[in-house]
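User: Fold this; tokens only.

Assistant: Input:
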Amino acid sequence: MSFFEPFNIALQLLFSFDAELYDVIFLSLQVSSTAVFSALLFGIPIGAVLAMKRFFGRSALLVISKTMLGMPPVVIGLLVYVLISRSGPLGFLDILYTPQAMMLAQFILILPLSIALSHQIFEKLHSELNLFFMSLGLGELKRVLTLLCEARYELITITMVCFGRAISEIGAVILVGGNIKYLTRVMTSSIALETSKGNIAFALALGIVLMLIALLINLFSHMLSQSVLKEATNG
């Protein structure tokens, strides 16, 4: 087999819409999108509250969220496995080795990232606009809405960073998902499995998709930064 033959086969699999290949791709997108949306739904408001309020336990929450940023994904997967196993406190949910278990693992993985990034953005904005808010006598709800509006580009960037982190994760999803064909097999776990089996073309096809996703995320980030720069210049 020549060096380029696996690449040719990989492209054929992609353009022929191979059923098994696209089942893996769509499941990966579904799991990661759901986990990221859920994590942002909780993480962004928590980050905003941590930026605007001073309360007992605030420092502890910040330390925990920042500590979990460096937590190995496989450790998070292990913790989720213990929680949802039959003997665990959430064993009654019966979601071990299902897409729901993988969503939960990715949610826990992404939540600290969404909290830390949104807190950093909101804290900077709030310090810049706090006097303005006070002069207008704005309530907390209006302050939050204003911050969300002002940080709209940064929040999109956070979303893309979180999605890139989620869809490229492998350790946690294998532990709680089991890498079951047509059920819990996602792109990263499939690449590891197919490479070990010698099915390089299939693994390359998935690798191409992951690289395209990374490319699209970077292009979109560049476009956003240019939009922000243009808006600031015009302003």
